[in-house]
Amino acid sequence: MAAMNNLWLIKVGEISLKKGNRAFFERVLKENIRKKLRLVAPEGSGSQISNRGGRFYLDTSLPEDLIRPILASTPGIVAFSRALKVKKDLDSLTEASIEVAKRCLAGNSGNRFKFEVRRTDKGLPLDSYGYARELGARLLEALPELVVDVRKPDFIIKLELREWGYVYEQDISGPGGLPVGTAGRGMLLLSGGIDSPVAGYLMAKRGITLSAVHFHTPPFTSPEALDKVIRLAESLAPWCGGITLANVSFTDCQVKINESVDPASTTLHSRATMMKIAQRIAAKRRCGALVTGESLGQVASQTLESLAYTNGSVHLPVFRPLIGLDKEQIIRISRDIGTYETAIEPFDDCCTLFSPTHPLTRPDTKEMKEAFTAIDGLEALIEEAAEKAEIIRIDGIGQRIEG
User: Fold this and answer.
1) How many secondary structure helices (H) and strands (E) does the chain include?
2) pTM value > 0.85
3) Nearest to 299 by CA among 278, 327, 331, 280
4) Which of the following CATH numbers is that of domain 185-401: 3.40.50.1820, 3.40.50.620, 3.40.50.300, 3.40.1190.20?
5) Could you report the per-residue pLDDT of 253-269, keeping only the tens digit for each?
6) CATH assignment of 4-173, among 3.40.50.920, 3.30.2130.30, 3.20.20.30, 3.30.160.60
7) Contact residues for 401 (Cβ-Cβ < 8 A; gap 6+)
8) Is a pLDDT exceeding 60 seen at residue 140?
């Protein structure tokens, strides 16, 4: 019988619905897991990943405290659990079930349990209910402190009868979605706030390989504000399989805009300028879309008219995965992915620092474009800002890559 911490059973969702190109999605998911394993141990310490029958199996000598965060942050994985791989006879299944139950009891999970059995091997002598009933009776005999409770169990012992018997505890949730690298590349506009990291996470779950661009305005914004954004990128990186952050000095562009246009429109012109710079950097990274954390109506620059204006400043499609979410929903996801506490640190970014008292909310797109075009020397500053961006690379477990 395999040691419990050597085998992980991994469940996928959308991948299993793919038809002709399913093998491609499976191959990318396996490679994404392997890349993370190699980052925590030399060559993944001999870990092997296989898949069959809608399940992935990770055989590894690496400990649980390394494996769990890797699988929990890899898009494409719906759920996973440590498992025992055993023969399909009742004695072997009973032995494995007792081991799982003892672990649950030791973990203070309570003593009320039930079995959930999935039998894909139809040649076996019992049906799913029959195995649950027989194994439940044997478990009660071996561990009298246990109580069967099919309605509100403290823990569930799961059994899958495939080419082998797989016995495991309750599932640990993964992010779901599609493997990163199956849907092209995107450039995330990453601020120091709550929203944009969540937007990046949601697009990573749709298979997008992300790069990011951040705009800072020294000396108006502090080194601490920039450090905060780098730490946000480090927290986001495991969900993205790593991320490259382009850090853009936006001071000259911001000053030029503020001295050239009506104060009420500065935020919108600044936003359009950021989009143009992001598009230039996106071209270098072979990105086919921009990604922002905008949510309709949340602030003045996110009204329908404002978004139409900033959209018109670029030719790449702009993905806004938060567009229909409210702030509480966004905060909930931010907490789940571990970016919230960093995002609320009180360091101003260039968007909040230079926000006008009475911002324009219903811009006329034609008038705004004319005003933007009239800003003397701005296009040259845009080109310069994109060319001089500082590149910071972060790997798939959130560690900065030096050099």
Assistant:
1) 14, 16
2) yes
3) 327
4) 3.40.50.620
5) 999 999 999 989 999 99
6) 3.30.2130.30
7) 393, 394, 395
8) yes
